[in-house]
Request: fold
Amino acid sequence: MSGTSSVVDLLSPEFTQDPYTIYDDMRAEAPAHRVVAKTLTTELHAWVVTRYEAARSLLADPRLSKNATELPRIVERNKVSADPVQLANFKSMLFSDPPDHTRLRRIMGKAFTMRRVQRLRPRIEQATDELLDRIPPGEDVDLVTALSLPLPITVIGELLGIPADERDDFRSWNATLTSTTATMQDKMQAHLASSAYLRDFIARKRETPGDDLVSALLDVDDEEQRLDEGELLSTIFLVMNAGYETTASMISNSVYALLRDPEERQRLRTGPDAIPAAVEEFLRYESPLNLATVRFTLEPVEIDGLTIPRDDIVFISLAAANRDAARFGEPGAVDTGREANSHLAFGHGIHHCLGAPLARMEGEIALGRLLDRFPKWDLAVDEEALRWRDSLQFRTLDRLPVRLS
Reply:
């Protein structure tokens, strides 16, 4: 079979609100479908992979490239509109292949160590407590704005060494850059503004280094282990975005799952040792990242009898793979005691999320503190009123109004 085109509309509001029914049909019909997709820039003809085994295999397949240098040509080849597309030049490890990726990840790994992550624990606990202190018991509050968004912004700010009074700008720029409705002009303005800020921030760190990730990346004597200016900018930008959006989604999605299951809330409240396993299940059940970032084929790639041609764009649906009944029993149900929970929420292979330990820590602390402080949780609106964000890339609620007491 050389290809399967689909009339499924992944850009529709119906899909945004309930992708899993459509993903089930797609998965049953073929391992991948050629659809129109849109992430951060423009509408593209692309393949979407939905089966777990195929997704896991392709995430680690060197025939699928993430080379940013070639990406503009690939986007031009596969774009839907004839309008020109402007792509920012990202030189980070997320948009590179070996050997460049190997070098960039090695440099990042030496600075972003488990020791540095663990040193953030007291600050994460303090920031969580401070945010929960502001929640009035028994009154309506949007958990997204009260906890899910500000906590990771605080943590990433601490990690990078960004002063507290400068972090709101990043939140605004990120909202524009990840929006599916913002214009390309808006996105380019946000990119230019954030890049200008980061250049100034890096200059300040060169003059006055601190105990933070940016200072560690700058404090390198070996020329081969030093990031150039473009690589440094892109790496900081990657940490800022990757560590914020998905972690915020993970917290909201986890709380929402527990709001619907009072018995599970009570089990975790009385047995907090089970929270880490519960976080893994929430990551599987509602993957914060629906689609892994863009890849393209360097040569024809066959999966389960279907051939994806060379120079085609491929999006791997982590959300769909994590609900594949061929890999997970009762995938549409939350089971915090699930064994061998090898979900793909953090990816797989050489691009597996380097920040996964930090995200897990934030999720475990946030849930643990919420459960300990507030025995009673209620949705403050009818469940039908909740809306998922209009995004093909991220799986997150716009708002989560709750009453905690």
